[in-house]
Design a protein that fits this description.
This protein is α/β, with parallel strands linked by helices. Helix content is 46%, strand content 12%. The chain has 20 helices and 15 strands. The chain has helices spanning 12-22, 27-40, 61-65, 69-80, 89-110, 116-133, 145-151, 200-214, 231-236, 238-244, 269-287, 291-307, 316-327, 333-343, 372-391, 414-417, 421-433, 458-461, 476-483, 487-499, and strands at 5-6, 58-59, 163-168, 174-178, 190-193, 220-225, 246-251, 361-366, 398-399, 402-403, 407-411, 439-445, 464-467, 504-507, 518-519. Helix 1 crosses helix 2, helix 11 packs antiparallel against helix 15 (372-391) and helix 13 runs antiparallel to helix 14 (333-343).
């Protein structure tokens, strides 16, 4: 289907005048711009009412479209929900060329000092901003193949059996959890709930110790402690730290060994825009900055990235300085957050291009003395960085019946961190997608009601759940939902929870009796 068309008679001189004004070459270029300008307005024209005469400038198919014929047709098809062979596609294209020429002519007539360069720059910038205004998704930023090779080293995976001793029955029968056995478990995600002081953290530490021991250190972990470790807890955990060769990082006294800005792709322009928008969204979501400050942060981050050469990444200090340059030194929430992130040295400024931190074990303690918004922002920057890094790795294969395992991401106080809908959406994506990369997510929380949100059920995506003593032991339905068990095992669960003591728990473990009490 050839598309040869003519503009309206009224637009024949308009094409000539705009061609001179824009100074971009032949007249077909102006008509292409007019077509795009018209579509950008979002209006839908009518063949009955808006189709003008065909007595103006003539365009042959190949002259009008050049090498991009399919793109122009695709834009019309998308705009009007047409199929690519629709007989009226040529008429729709003609209508929008005429419409765009009329709009552009009016714009230049009313603004005599308005140059063709002004028009192009303004509309290109508006188009970029429109891309950035789209809802920021929680999707990982996937690098192109070359960037992945340069930026991401596939962490080694362990494919043998990871058999974890989780406790014993009251008859002293040992109870094992086969973490990565796909013949028993669909995923290696774990939910643990229990009041403070019931043995929940002790249980989590023993689990991590055994993961490290069973895999001879090939599977590493990060323990994210949102509430901050006390001096007493640090002393009590010293054996755990020594056994697992875990590095304790107490923010703000020691920086975490990543630059969280380096998840942004500084090579691919589209990915860079997405990455900057995602970074701004994290700061916005957990620091409660307004729209104006959000735009300032976006502009500052974009400018600082543009100033970097040879794949270098900026620091929070550079972004903070640029915000001051743009917005002055008047106090604002944005400046407070960026100042804290830079002055407290929460993160390294250099970039760990090979992500070597994934080959070590870390306990990241965010001091309760830190402002709440800084703690939230920091923990989500870390989680987002880890998620994006693993999503750019090859899948960890299943060998025999064992899923290859690389890492454990343990998040304490999950009920506090994932309270908001946006953060719940991020966790849902992580739980769904990251398991194929050989990552186990372990969520610790004091209660079970936070796991079972109306819009999102954490526990349903963590196949294995362990329940210690909790405050609301009378809500049997909620406990059943947390463990994913039916009424058949409900009475056993009810009886167990009525008798439960410190360092005792129930689970939905397939290797033991569902709902039956045992010792951690």
């Amino acid at each position: 289907m050839l598309i040869n068309l003519r503009t309206s008679e009224a637009n024949k001189p308009v094409v000539q005048e705009l061609t001179k004004r824009l100074n971009l070459g032949t007249e077909n270029v102006v008509s292409r711009i007019a077509f795009a300008y018209s579509l950008s307005k979002g209006v839908k024209l009518s063949l009955e009412n808006d189709l003008k005469d065909s007595k103006g400038k003539e365009y042959k198919d190949d002259i009008l479209f050049g090498k991009y014929r399919d793109y122009y047709i695709a834009m019309i098809c998308q705009h009007y929900s047409l199929y690519k062979s629709d007989k009226d596609i040529g008429k729709y294209i003609k209508m929008h060329i005429d419409h765009g020429l009329t709009l552009m002519n009016k714009l230049f007539e009313e603004n005599k000092n308005y140059s063709g360069l002004d028009f192009l720059l303004e509309n290109i910038e508006r188009g970029i901003e429109k891309l950035e205004e789209n809802d920021v998704t929680n999707d990982a930023i996937i690098f192109d193949e070359q960037t992945r090779r340069n930026r991401i080293s596939n962490k080694d995976y362990f494919t043998g059996a990871i058999r974890i001793l989780v406790g014993s029955s009251f008859d002293d029968e040992k109870i094992y959890f086969n973490l990565n056995d796909t013949s028993i478990h669909n995923n290696a995600h774990i939910a643990v709930a229990g009041n403070s002081g019931t043995g929940k953290t002790y249980f989590a530490n023993r689990l991590l110790e055994q993961v490290v021991s069973e895999t001879k250190g090939e599977v590493n972990f990060i323990f994210l402690d949102f509430k901050g470790i006390t001096a007493e807890d640090e002393k009590a955990n010293s054996v755990f730290f020594n056994k697992t060769k875990t590095e304790l990082i107490k923010a703000p006294y020691k920086p975490f060994p990543i630059n969280p800005l380096s998840f942004i792709d500084n090579v691919n322009e589209k990915n860079k825009i997405m990455g900057i928008s995602k970074f701004v969204d994290i700061i916005t979501s957990y620091s409660n900055i307004g729209k104006n400050q959000q735009q300032t942060l976006k502009d500052a981050t974009r400018e600082v990235f543009a100033s970097k050469k040879n794949g270098q990444y900026p620091s929070f200090r550079e972004i903070y300085d640029k915000v001051i340059e743009i917005d002055g030194d008047k106090a604002s929430t944005l400046k407070e957050v960026l100042q804290s992130l830079s002055e407290l040295d929460l993160f390294e400024t250099k970039v760990d291009l090979k992500n070597s931190f994934l080959n070590k074990n870390y306990y990241m303690s965010l001091s309760g003395d830190l402002p709440r918004n800084i703690r939230f922002t920091s923990v989500f920057l870390i989680i987002n960085y880890i998620y994006n890094t693993f999503m750019n790795m090859d899948n960890a294969p299943i060998e025999g019946k064992y899923q290859g395992m690389r890492y454990v991401l343990l998040i304490d106080e999950a009920h506090v961190i994932f309270k908001e809908k946006k953060s719940q959406d991020l966790l849902e994506k992580i739980l769904r997608e990251i398991r194929s990369k050989g990552v186990s997510v372990v969520l610790l929380s004091q209660g079970i009601e936070e796991f079972n949100q109306p819009s999102f059920d954490f526990s349903s995506m963590c196949e294995t759940a362990f329940l210690f003593d909790i405050k609301d032991k009378t809500n049997l339905k909620m406990m059943q939902k947390f463990l994913g068990i039916g009424d058949k095992d409900g009475q056993k669960l009810k009886s167990s929870m009525e008798k439960i003591q410190k360092y005792q728990l129930v689970s939905n473990l397939k290797e033991f009796k569902v709902g039956e009490l045992f010792k951690a």
